[in-house]
# Entry
Amino acid sequence: MLHSAAIAFGNVLLPALIRRSAPAHRVQGVSALHVTVMGLMAAVSSGISASLAHAVPDS
# Structure
């Protein structure tokens, strides 16, 4: 349940919050940073999940 809320916040609410809170001349840069960090985190979590599954007992 918590993961679903985090995904909803990150994918839906955060871009709207960026547009509302960031200065107009910085919205594109902040949005690009947001998308980049989300992509990097997805790649890192995918990359370590198999190793972590083998390292953690009873997984």
